[in-house]
Amino acid sequence: MIVLNQKSLIPNSFLFYTDDFKLVLERAMKVGLESIIITGGSLSESEKAIQIANTNDRLYATVGCHPTRVNEFDHYSDPQAYYDNLVKAVKNGGSKVVAIGECGLDPYFPPTIFQLKDFQLFPSNNHKHQKLLKKKKNRYFEKQFDLAETTRLPMFLHNRNTGSDFVTMIKQNRHRFTSGVVHSFTGSLEEMLELVNLDLYIGINGCSLKTEENLAVAKQIPENRLMIETDCPYCDIKKTHASYKYLHMVPQPQVNLEEHSGSQGTNDTTSNTPEKGKGSKDVVFDDNDEMWLNPLSKLKNKYQPGLMVKGRNEPFTIRQVLRVLANIRNQDETQLAHIVYENTKRVFFPLSRQNPSA
Ligand SMILES: [Zn+2]
């Protein structure tokens, strides 16, 4: 099985405690990941992502500025210089850069922003201040459509609780970029359908599967618009999530002779149909109870090579996202993996941009 992943692997991220990068990659490739896209969340992070991508044929990078970091535009020598250097990073990265992002909208700003000079005029809950922040975020999100338009690269998009603002901005700028994924999707069914109608892809990770409402939306994503990711080091599937009960069930694809006449089914379809309920005694485990299903982890101060670090998600758990999706959508796991693989390839790795040596 081959699946692509699209999230951060940058070792200087605060959740990386130990230099076990090689082992992290080994685990990722073991579950069938062919390539990994390392997300850049700022100019310096994008440059770092490219640097890491250059160390391994299977690694790629994005270039962009996350909505919670757009203050960097203003605190650079000047915003245009920051933008010009993002363009330069894309050019220097060559075929290693496969998307613009992560960019988008998010109401959150790290508390440190309030210490910055241009915001000292206002208390953080001041209405005028909030308006100013919103304007700033919109301006620099807009700027990254320029970047996508200039570079002709697809977009890796982020949206968190912004009401209709995000979709409005996408609509206004949709003609300027070729394609893209709205990653870590946690929106409503209506929002998902609106984005799909704008010919965008929906990226699902552990955070997108936390609640029953999330699951109901994920179930409805048209398969030709579905992507999966881990958002590591964040967004792992936790025991408290609605998705967790679907992790330890063997998918039982719905038999639809018309649609799936060529389907081979999974190897484990001989298992009993699992009961879909928390704490169910009829839960059926996979034949190969592999590490991705029940990953062992140790606290950072008790780090043990070969095991995960507690609280730090890794690319290989993408297999869990696939398992949950296959279960809630009643789809064959392998078939679903191929579908998301093709979707991801279509957007981020079209033949014209592929590096012949990769
Ligand atoms: Zn995000």
Number of helices: 11
- In angstroms, what separates the terminal alpha carbons? 18 Å
**What coarse outline follows from CA principal-axis ratios?**
globular
Order of helices and strands: EHEHEHHEHEHEHEHEHEEHH
- The percentage helix is 25-40%
Q: Please outline the major beta sheet.
A: 8 strands, parallel
The number of distinct β-strands equals 10
Biggest sheet: strand arrangement: 1-2-3-4-5-6-7-8
Structural class: alpha/beta
| Cofactors, ions, other ligands | zinc ion
Q: In terms of per-residue confidence, which ranges show pLDDT below 50 for 5 or more consecutive residues?
A: 1-6, 8-16, 259-287
Summed over residues and divided by their number, the pLDDT gives a mean of 82
Protein name: Putative deoxyribonuclease TATDN1
GO molecular function: 3'-5'-DNA exonuclease activity; metal ion binding
Biased composition (Polar residues): 262-274
Region (Disordered): 257-285
Describe this entry's structure for a reader.
This protein is of the alpha/beta class. It has helices at residues 21-30, 43-53, 71-74, 79-93, 127-151, 165-173, 189-197, 212-220, 244-247, 318-328, 333-348, and strands at 3-5, 33-38, 59-63, 97-105, 155-159, 180-182, 201-204, 226-228, 297-298, 308-309. Strand 7, helix 8 and strand 8 form a beta-alpha-beta unit. Helix 2 (43-53) packs parallel to helix 4 (79-93) and helix 4 (79-93) runs parallel beside helix 5 (127-151). The longest helix is centred in the middle third of the chain and has 25 residues, at 127-151. The two termini are 18 Å apart. Bound molecules: zinc ion (ZN). The site of zinc ion has 4 residues, from loops. Zinc ion is lined by residues 102, 158, 183-184. This is Putative deoxyribonuclease TATDN1. InterPro entries: DNase_TatD-rel_CS, Metal_Hydrolase, TatD-like, TatD-type_Hydrolase. Belongs to the metallo-dependent hydrolases superfamily. TatD-type hydrolase family. Residues 262-274 have a biased composition (Polar residues).
